[in-house]
User: Which sequence fits this backbone?
């Protein structure tokens, strides 16, 4: 095969931070290369240099045998490099065809319309249809993007890049938002695109997907090139070790659960979302002490509203939420927290931390008003510092500083601050929502072990996650939610990927 | 066109039917009311189109009032001192585009709070124009034009075909903005940067440049709105916009950020103005004229409360673009 891309010695620094340090990457035509690395390893920085979003400090990019000079995304597109971003770059109220042609519009070439750039929608839609037939990516060009399911929206993103003649496609964590079924479809699409000669750089955290679809893998760590491996010769364990730099236990070791009394009982709960439509439509379940109940489901099926209702952030419309024997339906967040509920929120930046506060202050967000951190309405700095120093040691928060603002920490360490705070307070129930989202493999292992440890201490754990692997490896029981309802409750020990995946997509378990 | 929303259109149609019925009852008065309604709608529509173009590009503009006032001020005094109404109009538009440049600079480049930027424009415009105001000046009036033949038609003649040139320009501009926004490359890009600017940026659309350009184009429309006030009043008075720039915002919302929606809403507000003027003139009812004068403002509050809930603003309106 002929070489499509070669990046040599790419370096990029942001102030004192070296995000990419002399990284090499090569790609042949029709090849799929997995780009692996923990958060902050420099994957995003590397592809952003390739796509012209960042300018490299040094290093060279050769594309199609030519030395490439890429100043901005427009430049990258013109040369045949396309990127599907982690957050979709689609305009929701516009149609598929409008989104695909944006920036390279099909306009009238003659007549008065040509002067002001009148668009030719019929021709544009025909072009989209032709393109989607050629690559086997079925999509209705006149559909409005916001009405389409996420998997189809992603297809539009890929078509958008192909429409501009992309010969190299960068996919930045494309499966993070997909159902297991949609993920399988995407992997198939990637394969068939590669067969037409398109080179693909596939960025992901998920080792299973890397093994399933890539030809080669390149691993980065701390901004440095660690190595490349042929996928056929690799295993999850060997790749994880390259990423983290030490051997990682991917399987969570846990004994059988010993469930006790019910700690949380949710009965016929109904909750509305921000736009006032029903998000949780009559959910019932219970979590007992000493067990982990996993809530599995594709995002947006009521999980966020459920967690917010339980933790007192959102009002419920009907039903009840009972902690132990205390009914705290529509209780305030303070009441819920004081009863003994720890909350690891889904959006750590928004709901879990005060970004500009110091690490120490963030460690006492739920207890700052109590002894020994406050006395007669005044804060006791010495006690707060002592507590924070203890927690960053115990939970391995890096760097070991309690005075710097929490915003200066990496994603994984921010999450550790939250986990440290929530799990160190006196509590009986732990509500963990997407606890390892965007967190590196090393921290995932740590957080998983902490949750199991809490369970073994007799606490109840409610785990909400869109990561099927996380649900399967941690949960003692699994409740699958779909469109605001619990569609099935399964035994964690016997549930299979396929079974849960099917239920998450709205199928029934017997099908 | 699918972009036209039924509510404002239905209101406009209902008003038209009512006008025809009234015409058969009292022709002269009805003609006076509908003609006045269209004239009153002019600056509201132009102001609303200014706000709409800004918000569709992702910039909130509450400085329409100030832009109109600056344009009317510059238009009047340049026309008055130069003796040419055309110099005046060019000067008014120039002044408006300067305020537009200021809004674009503060909100797009400096990334300041856009509500504050708009408020600065409003406060500055009121203070500046009041301070430099000179009493006793006059200017030639802005030309009127009656389209031969059509203007003589009953009811629709005075309503649509016999107006000052700026009222005609408003009719032309609303159609042009609609076609440009929904049918051209520029319109697609404009709608994209108002909803999801990084989506446009990553396909090579320069968000910053396009926002600058659109805010300045929009400010020219507010400029025409300000000149339209001169067309009716024939002289400049302190604070002569009298809240019309804010009512234009309500018109924009009521029209759901769509040009023809704004037109329907502007005609509704204009009709209230027309009825008020006629009742005041005839002293038909024993109600203080101030009461009728209050109605447009009252309606503005109701519209902002009710339509504001239903209208979905462009997702990126008010948010400076930070880059992909």
Assistant:
């Amino acid at each position: 095969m002929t070489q499509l891309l070669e990046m040599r010695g790419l370096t990029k620094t942001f102030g004192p931070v070296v995000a990419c340090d002399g990284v090499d990457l090569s790609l042949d035509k029709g090849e799929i290369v997995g780009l692996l690395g923990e958060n902050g390893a420099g994957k995003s920085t590397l592809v952003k240099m390739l796509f012209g979003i960042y300018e490299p400090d040094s290093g060279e990019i050769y594309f199609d045998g030519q030395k490439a000079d890429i100043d901005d995304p427009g430049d990258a597109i013109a040369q045949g490099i396309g990127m599907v971003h982690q957050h979709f770059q689609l305009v929701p109220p516009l149609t598929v065809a409008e989104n695909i042609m944006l920036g390279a519009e099909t306009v009238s070439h003659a007549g008065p319309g040509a002067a002001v750039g009148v668009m030719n929608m019929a021709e544009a839609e025909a072009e989209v249809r032709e393109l989607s037939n050629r690559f086997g990516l079925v999509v209705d060009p006149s559909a409005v993007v916001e009405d389409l399911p996420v998997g189809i929206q992603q297809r539009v993103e890929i078509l958008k890049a192909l429409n501009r003649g992309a010969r190299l496609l960068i996919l930045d964590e494309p499966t993070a938002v997909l159902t297991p079924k949609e993920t399988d479809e995407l992997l198939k699409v990637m394969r068939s695109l590669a067969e037409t000669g398109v080179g693909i750089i596939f960025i992901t955290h998920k080792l299973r997907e890397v093994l399933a679809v890539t030809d080669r893998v390149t691993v980065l760590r701390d901004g440095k090139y660690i190595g490349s491996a042929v996928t056929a010769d690799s295993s999850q364990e060997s790749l994880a070790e390259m990423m983290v730099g030490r051997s990682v236990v991917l399987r969570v070791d846990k004994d059988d659960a010993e469930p006790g009394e019910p700690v949380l009982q949710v009965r016929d709960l109904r909750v509305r979302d921000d736009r006032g439509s029903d998000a949780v439509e009559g959910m019932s379940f219970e979590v007992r002490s000493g067990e982990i109940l996993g809530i599995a489901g594709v995002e947006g099926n009521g999980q966020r509203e459920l967690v917010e209702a339980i933790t007192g952030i959102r009002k419920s419309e009907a039903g009840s939420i009972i902690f132990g024997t205390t009914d705290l339906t529509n209780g305030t967040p303070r009441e819920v927290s004081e009863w003994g509920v720890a909350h690891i929120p889904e959006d750590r930046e928004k709901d879990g931390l005060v970004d500009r506060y110091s690490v120490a202050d963030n460690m006492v967000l739920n207890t700052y008003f109590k002894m020994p951190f406050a006395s007669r309405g005044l804060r006791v700095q010495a006690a707060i510092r002592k507590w924070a120093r203890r927690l960053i040691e115990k939970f391995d928060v890096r760097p070991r500083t309690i005075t710097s603002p929490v915003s200066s920490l990496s994603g994984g360490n921010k999450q550790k601050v939250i986990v440290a705070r929530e799990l160190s307070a006196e509590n009986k129930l732990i509500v963990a929502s997407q606890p390892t989202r965007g967190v590196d493999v090393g921290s995932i292992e740590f957080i998983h072990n902490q949750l199991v440890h809490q369970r073994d201490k007799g606490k109840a754990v409610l785990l909400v996650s869109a990561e099927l692997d996380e649900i399967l490896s941690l949960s003692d029981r699994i409740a699958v939610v779909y469109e605001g309802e619990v569609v099935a409750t399964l035994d964690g020990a016997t549930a299979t990927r396929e079974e849960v995946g099917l239920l998450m997509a709205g199928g029934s378990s017997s099908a | 066109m699918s972009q036209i929303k039924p509510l404002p259109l239905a209101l406009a149609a209902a008003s038209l039917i009512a006008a025809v019925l009234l015409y058969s009852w009292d022709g002269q008065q009805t003609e006076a009311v509908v003609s006045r309604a269209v004239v009153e709608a002019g600056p509201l529509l132009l102001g609303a189109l200014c706000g709409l173009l800004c918000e569709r590009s992702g910039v909130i503009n509450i400085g329409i009032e100030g832009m109109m006032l600056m344009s009317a001020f510059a238009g009047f005094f340049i026309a008055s001192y130069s003796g040419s109404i055309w110099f005046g109009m060019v000067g008014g538009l120039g002044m408006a585009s300067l305020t537009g440049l200021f809004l674009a600079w503060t909100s797009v480049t400096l990334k300041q709070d856009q509500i504050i930027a708009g408020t600065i424009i409003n406060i500055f415009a009121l203070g500046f124009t009041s301070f430099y105001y000179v009493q006793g000046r006059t200017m030639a009036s802005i030309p009127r034009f009656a389209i031969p033949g059509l203007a003589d038609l009953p009811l629709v003649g005075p309503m649509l075909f016999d107006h000052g040139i700026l009222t005609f320009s408003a009719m032309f501009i609303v159609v042009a903005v609609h076609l440009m926004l929904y049918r051209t490359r520029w319109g697609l890009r404009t709608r994209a940067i108002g909803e999801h600017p990084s989506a446009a940026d990553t396909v090579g659309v320069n968000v910053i440049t396009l926002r600058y350009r659109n805010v300045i184009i929009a400010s020219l429309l507010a400029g025409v709105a300000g000149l339209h006030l001169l067309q009716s009043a024939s002289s400049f008075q302190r604070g002569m916009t009298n809240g019309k720039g804010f009512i234009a915002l309500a018109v924009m919302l009521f029209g759901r950020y769509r040009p023809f929606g704004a037109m329907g809403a502007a005609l509704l507000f204009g009709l209230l103005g027309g009825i008020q003027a006629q009742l005041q003139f005839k002293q038909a009812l024993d109600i203080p004229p101030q009461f009728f004068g209050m109605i447009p403002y009252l309606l503005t509050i109701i519209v902002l409360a009710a339509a504001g809930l239903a209208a979905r603003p462009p997702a990126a309106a008010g948010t400076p673009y930070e880059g992909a």
In short: Strands of chain B lie at 144-146, 162-164. The radius of gyration of chain B is 20 Å. Residues 161 and 249 of chain B are 27 Å apart (CA to CA).
